[in-house]
Specification:
The protein has nine helices and six strands. By secondary structure, the protein is α/β, with parallel strands linked by helices. The protein folds into two domains: about 5-15 and about 85-215, HAD superfamily/HAD-like (Rossmann fold), CATH 3.40.50; about 15-80, Orthogonal Bundle (DNA polymerase, domain 1). Strands 3-2-1-4-5-6 form a six-stranded parallel β-sheet, sandwiched between helices. β2 (about 105-110), α6 and β3 (about 130-135) form a beta-alpha-beta unit. α1 (about 15-30) crosses α4. The N and C termini lie close together (about 10 Å). The structure holds 1,6-di-O-phosphono-beta-D-glucopyranose (B16) and magnesium ion.
């Protein structure tokens, strides 16, 4: 038996685009601009770390109070996008893989940096599919620290080396590698070259490949 750990944003649903919109709006209001390449560095990274990075790119600092206010503003904007989500936003072939894992009697956890993860899973009706949910409310150290995945392994009762992580972010793949788990990058090979395997999306992942992960 293996433990399969799924990141949320950019793996199960494309909420990365909503994070991007909300951060871009906030940054522009502060007179800061950032490139798509810089945006890659925000994926998988906590809310606090994301704002720190954006401020550093714009050479700006904020008081503690303003920092908190900007984070709240970003989350409010982000949640306005989330409120409109439904099952149609589940990324292609994610249900096929989840169903296959269930059929093969494997255990499944979420491993996300997002404090909104439970809300999103409820919106897209996938919460019941998970044996464990570990998210931004359960961790003290952000990816690339492996904490989120190690807690997930513990909750699944699996050794880290018997876990497989699906991740779309540079920081998340690094976290999985540090945790000694099999890392599967979902996205571009140019960005996620440090993963054990990289697929553009789940449509490229065959049932046979999943079964080989379970058997090896
Ligand atoms: P929130 P993941 C991450 O989720 C996102 O990729 C990242 O862009 C975001 O800043 C982080 O969650 C925190 O999200 O503001 O909702 O708490 O990819 O780890 O599922
Ligand atoms: Mg992600």
């Amino acid at each position: 038996m293996r433990g399969f750990i799924f990141d949320l944003d950019g793996v199960i649903v494309d909420t990365a685009k909503y994070h991007y919109l909300a951060w871009k709006k906030l940054a522009n209001d502060l007179g800061i601009d950032f490139t798509e390449e810089e945006n890659e560095q925000l994926k998988g990274v906590s809310r606090v770390k994301s704002l720190e990075k954006i401020l550093a790119w714009g050479n700006k600092t904020l008081s503690d109070k303003d920092f908190k206010a900007q984070m709240a503003k970003k989350n409010k904007d982000y949640l306005s996008h989330i409120a409109k989500m439904d099952e149609s936003e589940i990324l292609p072939d994610v249900p096929r893989i989840l169903n296959l894992l269930k059929k093969e009697k494997q255990v499944i956890s979420l491993g996300s940096a997002s404090k909104n993860a439970r809300t999103i899973l409820e919106r897209v009706n996938l919460k019941e599919q998970f044996d464990a949910i570990v998210d931004g409310n359960d961790v003290s150290k952000a990816k690339p620290d492996p904490e989120v995945f190690l807690i997930a392994a513990k909750q699944l009762n699996m050794k880290p080396e018997h876990c497989i992580v699906f991740e779309d972010s540079v920081a998340g793949v690094e976290a999985a590698n540090i945790a000694d788990m099999v890392s599967i990058g979902i996205g571009s090979k140019d960005v996620l070259g440090h993963a054990d395997y990289v697929f553009r999306d789940f449509t490229e992942i065959s049932d046979e490949f999943i079964k080989s992960l379970i058997e090896n």
